[in-house]
Amino acid sequence: MAEVAAASDNRPAVELYVSLHVAAVNRFRATHVKEWSDLPLERTGMFQRTISSLIFAAATLGATAAFAQTAPDAMIKQVAGDVIESVKNDKAIQAGDIGRIQGLVDTQVMPHVDFQRMTAATVGRAWKTATPEQQAKLQAEFKTLLIRTYSGALTKVNAQTTVELKPSRNAAEDADVTVRTAIKGTGGDPIEIDYKLEKQPAEWKIFDVNVLGVWLVDQYKSSFQQQIASGGVDGLISALVAKNKAPAAPAK
Fold it and tell me: Which CATH superfamily is domain 37-245 in?
C-alpha cells in the first residue's frame, strides 16, 4: 500500500496525489451520473488494495526543501521512510483521525505535488473557463474527497512497511519522468506504484500516480466531466461538497 501528495503556490488547497491517465475507469448509467461509491473500480476485488495504495503513495511524497535538487527517484525513496515513520508514530492517524491526516497532507504532502495541474487534468476543458474562485473550490473539495476516501488505508502501515525503487527508464535530460516503486510489508503482496513527476524550477513535483494500473486522474475524470455536462462547474462543486459532507465510510 502506499503514499501520495499535493499543493503549490500558497493558495488554500492549491496544488493530492496525486498526484493523479490511461483510459477512463469510471462509467455512468445511461443518463444518470453515478455516485462515486458506485464506480466500477470500487466494485472489484482489488478496490481495497487500490485505495490503500493511493494513500500510501501520498505519504511518500513529503519531501522538504533539502531535497529540492535531488533526483526524483532518490527523493521519493528518501522521504518515503520518513513520512511512513510519522504515520507509525501517530496513533491518531492510524485510527483514522481526519484532522490529523489533514495536517499530515497539508504540511508534508501538498507542498510537493502540483495539485493545480492534477485537478485541471481531472476537470478537463471546463477548467480553462472556470473562474479563479471556482478553480480554488474545485481544488479544495477534490483534496478533501481524496483524504476522506483514502484515509482508512493508513491503518495498513506497520513496522515492516518499506518502499523499494524499481529500475529507472528515464533519461537524464527528461523534464517529465515516471518513477516506479513497490510497497512491501503491508500484510499482502507488494503493491506497484508509478509516479509521474515534472521538473519545476525549485524541485520535482508529482502530478499523477498509478496504482495497480489505474491513474488517479483517470479514476475521477469521467465522473467529473459527466457531472459538468449535466450541471456545469457549479454542479460539480455542489456534488463534491455534498459528497464530502456525507458520513465517511468506515475504515477497512
Answer: Tgt2/MlaC (3.10.450.710)
- What is the Cα gyration radius of the chain? 17
- How many angstroms separate the Cα of 160 from the Cα of each of 1, 61, 170, 183, 233? 12, 19, 29, 10, 44
pLDDT tens track for 163-187: 889 998 988 889 999 999 888 888 8
CA distances from 169 to 7, 34, 229 (A): 27, 38, 38
Spans of all domains in the chain: 37-245
Closest of 60, 27, 19, 47 to residue 165, by C-alpha: 60
Residue 141 identity (one-letter amino acid): E
Instruction: Write down the pTM of the prediction.
Output: 0.69
Q: Which residue has the cell 477534490?
A: 142
Determine the angle formed by the axes of helices 47-59 and 72-88, rounding to 10 degrees: 100
* Residue (of 61, 53, 14) closest to 187 by Cα position: 53
